[in-house]
């Protein structure tokens, strides 16, 4: 599952867990982006990587990859998938995305190459229609997952306003944000 994870939240974790169950996956690899070219003002990748490690540590089926964080330049999924394929030559690769990301996929770099590298799984997300958006069902599967109306943008804005993010993100991530003063945190009651 690729994402900017700024920060990772329970919407990401529930989506990953549902896909793992429904598609009988051995492992879900979370891949935090290095420099996402369609997003501005992103937190340093080491913070996003470490929050992802903290959030996934307790699940034996979840792992985190540094392939995007360690690659120079902008992050493109075509490179992510090539790097993962090199590291896992025998694996069947699936790329998990939310409905909003799938709406944009035709704008991604080397989109035609993507279908050769992985099968895509689009999960439902509140506020977005889950549809193939003109993509082929041969390359993309759709999956309804429990609806959690959480976004990283909302989490960042809440922290900046001094509102709690407990129960929106894992406890360790709440503590990591406070410890490193991410998102312009104002003092909050805990
Ligand atoms: N609540 C959610 N339910 C289902 N999928 C989600 C949810 N939140 C994010 N996703 C999906 O997870 C992937 C990574 O998301 P990302 O890290 O960009 O989080 P985000 O909440 O969309 O962030 P931001 O608000 O900063 O854009 C994307 O494919 C996105 O569609
Ligand atoms: O390859 C691309 O051109 C591309 C463009 C936008 C997003 N992506 C990937 O989509 C995933 C979700 O991205 P984001 O920005 O919504 O967190 C993440 O793995 C990104 O690298 C990929």
List keywords for this structure.
8 helices; binds adenosine-5'-triphosphate; 6 strands; 3-stranded parallel beta sheet; binds nicotinate mononucleotide; 37% helix; single chain; Rossmann fold; globular; 190 residues; alpha/beta
Describe this entry's structure for a reader.
It contains eight helices and six strands; from the N terminus they run βαβαβααβααββαα. With 190 residues, it is of the alpha/beta class. It has a single domain, classed as Rossmann fold, CATH 3.40.50.620. Helix 2 (45-56) packs antiparallel against helix 8 and helix 4 packs parallel to helix 6. The longest helix is centred in the N-terminal third of the chain and has 13 residues, at 10-22. It is globular and about 45 Å long. It starts with a strand and ends in a 10-residue tail after the last helix. The mean pLDDT is 95. Adenosine-5'-triphosphate is lined by residues 3-6, 11-12, 15, 97-98, 100-101, 123, 125, 148, 150-153. Nicotinate mononucleotide binds next to strand 1 and helix 4.
Helix content: 25-40%
Shape assignment: globular
**SSE sequence, one letter per element:** EHEHEHHEHHEEHH
Q: For the record, what is the CATH homologous superfamily label?
A: HUPs
Which runs of at least 5 residues are low in confidence (pLDDT < 50)?
none
Q: What structural class do helix, strand and pairing data support?
A: alpha/beta
How many independent structural domains?
Answer: 1
Strand content: 5-15%
- What's the CATH topology label? Rossmann fold
Overall radius of gyration: 16 Å
């Amino acid at each position: 599952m690729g994402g900017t994870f700024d920060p990772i939240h329970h919407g990401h974790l529930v989506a990953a867990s549902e896909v793992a169950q429904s598609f009988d996956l051995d492992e879900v690899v979370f891949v935090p982006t290095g420099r996402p070219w369609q997003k501005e003002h992103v937190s340093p990748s080491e913070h996003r990587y470490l929050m992802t490690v903290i959030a996934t540590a307790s699940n034996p089926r979840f792992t985190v990859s540094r392939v995007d964080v360690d690659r120079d330049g902008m992050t493109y999924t075509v490179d992510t998938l090539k790097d993962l394929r090199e590291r896992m030559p025998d694996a069947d690769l699936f790329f998990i995305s939310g409905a909003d990301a799938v709406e944009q996929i035709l704008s991604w770099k080397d989109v035609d190459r993507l279908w050769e590298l992985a099968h895509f799984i689009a999960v439902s997300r509140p506020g977005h229609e889950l549809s193939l958006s003109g993509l082929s069902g041969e390359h993309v599967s759709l999956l309804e997952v429990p609806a959690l109306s959480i976004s990283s943008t909302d989490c960042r804005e809440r922290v900046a306003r001094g509102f709690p993010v407990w129960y929106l993100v894992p406890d360790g991530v709440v503590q990591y944000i406070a410890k490193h003063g991410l998102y312009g945190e104002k003092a909050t009651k805990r």
